[in-house]
Each structure stands twice: as C-alpha cells, then as structure tokens.
Write a sequence for this structure.
C-alpha cells in the first residue's frame, strides 16, 4: 500500500476522482435499486440528473445500541484500521454516528444514524472557496481532496456536523476512498459502491443485522422501494426549516 503523499498515492487518488467523482463533469453514472443489485453503467457514461440517490431511515426499526451501520461505514472506508494516531481525543473521523433523541414532553426516545444529508442546496458547497465541496448531478455531495485547502468553512456551514477534518498522517488507505492530512471528509453514500450498482455499506449492514431500517434508492424513480415507502408513510427532513431539501429522510422522529 502506498504512503500518503507518495507519487503512487497521488496517482491512485487521481484515478479514483477521474472515474468516480470528478468535478469536470465526466464521472460515472450510478445504477442501483434498493434490494436487488442493479447493473452498473459503463464508466465512460456521465452521471445523470435524471436520478437522485437518497436514503429513508425508519427510526422505529433502528435499535438503540446497535452500531452495525457505523461499524460497516468505518470498515468499508478504512476509518477504523487501527493505525491512526491522534494528538487529541475526538479527532478521529466520523462519517456516520448514532444519536439518541428524547421528547421532553412525552419521554419518547428514538435512536437513529446521522450523516451527510446530501442536500439539494448544500451550504457546504456555497462557502467552499476552491470548489472542493461539490454536488454531483445525481445528488451526491462530495469533497475533492486535491483542491481542499483545509479551511473548514464547510464544517462550520453544515448544520448536521457531518464532516471531519484530518489532523494527522494516514496510512494503509483504500484506493477507492482517498483521504489525506489537512483535508475535510464526510459520508459519500459509498459512491464507489453506488457507481457499481450496489447499496451503501450502512444499508447492507442494517439489512444483514435484521433491522431493515434503511431504504436506499432513486428518489426520482416512483417505482423504487424508497419512493414507494416515502409515498406510503410520512417522513421528515432534519432541519426542514432551512429548506435544504436533504436526500436523507427520517420516519418516526
């Protein structure tokens, strides 16, 4: 495995960005369904605005104390490989986290995962001075590590506290999930999996654990399972008052 900063590492990250999340408009088009694995489109086809990927989280099915989705995210993206050294507590990157909510008036409690909401109008992209924070045509909000200068404006602008800043040197990275010291990162909805016609790792892990509390799919496809669920049952967007129109919806909160 190449070391961060090495020429091999730089080439690997360029290759990833060139085939998966480039900002120049030539990026792969995802093709995925909620349950069945869809056929991925050829890598030379651009992302289409005809699709918008999103997740519905059913808090009624989310088990308190369960961290299957968090563990799967960390494993899939190399966030818990045990070789990161942090000078201060709390510096470890966290792309997804479990939170517990309690209604003070009724005492009702729910547990749910919180991560990048992949907004239609993402404030993180508005404040980024270099364009490193950007939104693909299919709705995925990502960070180009090559041009991120670590100013952390996006972190301050995000109302969901969904991004992390990397303070320390990293080793043993995965080529499909490039990371780097001095840059900001956050949930990508497992863009490398989506572009291959697969579910995000958190969704598969939730299903494997038997909870089936997360539905992933194309929000613009009325026949997708996530769209059917949203039509049948009421759901909410966190901080709907901000009118960001997140791609992540919640039921039971």
């Amino acid at each position: 495995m190449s070391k961060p900063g090495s020429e091999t590492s730089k080439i690997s990250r360029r290759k990833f960005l060139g085939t998966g999340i480039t900002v120049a408009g030539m990026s792969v088009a995802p093709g995925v369904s909620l349950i069945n694995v869809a056929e991925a489109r050829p890598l030379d086809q651009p992302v289409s605005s005809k699709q918008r990927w999103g997740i519905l989280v059913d808090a009624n099915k989310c088990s308190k104390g369960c961290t299957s989705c968090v563990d799967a995210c960390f494993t899939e993206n190399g966030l818990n490989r045990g070789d990161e050294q942090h000078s201060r507590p709390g510096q470890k990157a966290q792309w997804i986290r479990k939170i517990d909510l309690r209604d003070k008036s009724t005492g009702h409690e729910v547990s749910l995962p919180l991560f990048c909401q992949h907004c239609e109008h993402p404030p993180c992209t508005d404040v980024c001075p270099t364009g490193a924070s950007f939104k693909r045509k299919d709705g995925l909000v990502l960070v180009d590590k090559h041009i991120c200068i670590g100013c952390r404006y996006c972190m301050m602008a995000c109302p969901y506290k969904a991004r992390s800043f990397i303070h320390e040197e990293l080793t043993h990275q995965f080529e499909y999930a490039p990371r780097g010291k001095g840059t900001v990162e956050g949930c990508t909805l497992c863009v490398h999996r989506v572009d291959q016609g697969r579910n995000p790792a958190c969704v598969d892990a939730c299903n494997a654990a038997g909870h089936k509390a997360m539905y992933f799919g194309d929000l613009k496809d009325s026949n997708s399972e996530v769209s059917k669920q949203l039509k049948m049952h009421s759901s909410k967007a966190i901080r709907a008052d901000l009118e960001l129109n997140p791609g992540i919806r919640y039921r039971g909160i």
